[in-house]
Design brief:
Length: 341
């Protein structure tokens, strides 16, 4: 008697999609061709461009979760994550609809998670579509409260070819351990888009999970394929979300010396946006930020800090002193802060 053993696929990859028909087929095909199989979940986020028809006609094997409206990146991926958790996947990847995965992307990221039970998230070398310049090799969080993608715009010449721990993983091309998500929770939907991946990474760090950059895994990204469709979207989301990461997650002894720099950085971004004519988006973002701030500070922060398992010194050690490399205007203000410790 011949027995056929069916191996359960343990990895699901969630693609949030909003009007991404022009990118979606290449994205799905790259995941369908992975050397280590994964189930693909597309969260159809209220598109009106033919995305749903494409999925029905060309990709009937894809798990499609149709949402009535655009829930943003955070809400969209959460719909897929909930489905994956309910169906007992061990690992849950997130992948932008305007990205393409190398055939060993899943294999190398899942392999890293399997090799180290302390790793909660593993991220990849994310290159731009030319496959020469870097989009991200993991995100860093600075003492000015400004996150940034490590290596962005640099020519990839092997300078990030060593595996390392990073502060945060890019939500656009990373894999998360289901066990960790059950512990710390899923994405904060108040963020909608931008910095929600830094927020969940910060919560993971506070809970003692490590975030690893694995350069053997590669993906290629068309930056801004979705956000560029909405006027001043980046300005609004940046001004709404940037301080929320700080208010929720930074322990008090680390937060106190950071506050003057964050204050200056935030309002510098605000007034710079005003001077560029982005008045409505800037004001709306700043107002919404302060509405959410009280919820984050007085309701969510105490719960997060109470569940913290690492020391404040550890958190201080993983925050990068100084400013992001591209914060040229803020570099002039840095002289007022003699110490970046």
């Amino acid at each position: 008697m011949i027995r056929t053993i069916i191996m359960k696929i343990k990895t699901a990859v969630v693609i949030p999609n909003w009007n991404g028909e022009k990118y979606l087929a290449l994205c799905i095909n790259s995941l369908s061709a992975q050397s280590q199989k994964c189930d693909v979940i597309v969260v159809e986020n209220g598109s009106v461009d033919g995305s749903l028809e494409l999925l029905k006609n060309k990709f009937p094997e894809v798990i499609t979760l149709v949402q009535e409206k655009n829930l943003g990146f955070a809400g969209g991926v959460n719909a897929g994550i909930r489905y994956a958790l309910e169906n007992n996947y061990e690992f849950i990847g997130l992948f932008n609809n305007d990205a393409i995965a190398h055939k060993d992307w899943v294999k190398n990221l899942v392999g890293e998670l399997e090799s180290d039970q302390n790793s909660g998230i593993v991220t990849c070398k994310l290159l731009k579509k030319d496959k020469k310049h870097i989009d991200s090799t993991g995100d860093l969080y600075t003492s000015w409260g400004l996150p940034y993608p490590r290596g962005r715009d640099e020519l990839d010449s092997g300078q990030y070819d060593e595996k390392s721990e990073v502060f945060s993983a890019s939500g656009g091309a990373s894999i998360y351990r289901a066990e960790m998500l059950k512990q710390i929770g899923i994405f904060d939907e108040d963020f909608f888009a931008y910095y929600e991946d830094v927020d969940i990474s910060f919560r993971a760090q506070l809970a003692g999970w490590k975030i690893v950059y694995q350069p053997k895994a590669e993906a290629y990204h068309q930056i801004g394929g979705t956000s560029s469709k909405i006027k001043d979207f980046t300005t609004y989301q940046t001004l709404k979300n940037l301080p929320l990461v700080y208010w929720k997650n930074v322990p008090f002894s680390v937060a106190a010396p950071m506050w003057p720099k964050i204050f200056i950085a935030y309002w510098s971004i605000f007034f710079s946006a005003l001077l560029k004519g982005k008045v409505i988006a800037s004001i709306k973002g700043a107002v919404k930020c302060h509405v959410f701030m009280f919820k984050k500070l007085f309701i969510e922060r105490p719960k997060i800090q109470k569940s913290k398992t690492v020391s404040n010194e550890y958190i201080k050690s993983i925050i990068t002193p100084g400013l992001p490399p591209n914060a040229y205007k803020l570099q002039r203000l840095r002289r007022f802060f003699v110490s970046e410790s």
